[in-house]
Fold this protein.
Amino acid sequence: MKFTFSPPNQLTFLRILLTPVFLALLFSADPALRQLSLVVFILALLTDWYDGWVARRWGYVTRWGTFLDPLADKVVTSAALIAFIYLDLVPPWPVWIIVVRDIAITLLRSYSEYKGKPFDTTRLAKTKTFLQFVLIYYVLLLYVGKDIEYFRSNYGDLIAKLLDESLLYSGMVVIAAITLLTGVLYIIDNWKTVRELYGLSGRITESQ
């Protein structure tokens, strides 16, 4: 699988490189820099949309790009969710379910791409990624918004309610459940490919 540093792949790498910048800003003691972390995260999402559009528009769709694009998404989302743990915004265990599932499926997909047997992506998996982004934007917007004087003075109580621990806990549990479900469905839907990759079909036949 030959790698080409095409424009879409450059945008994908940019998204990965933006991750430490986002984290540095988010953990800054300066409220203005924390607010800037939201801008960086939005920029990362825009590169996600734009690299896909460029790849389809000018025929840059490659197996490397097909693998790197979701990997970059998982780097960004996992970093944000883990950061929320350290900021005491979300419970740890749903985050680790999401991160471990995403890493496991990504490694499996990368191996299948290397072997020339790409996995099929389900619509529910794409929905899962969308919901993760929505949750992250929700938390980020409220977290940095409470530092802005206007919002703190006029909507402080509302922001506190929207960042309520039980509310975020429920949201994280739902997304963790969907994430886990999509991981199981990934394996089921691509079971034939998994068997071929690891020689399970031959072993099953021999055992019978």
In short: The radius of gyration is 19 Å. Confidence is low (pLDDT under 50) at residues 203-208.
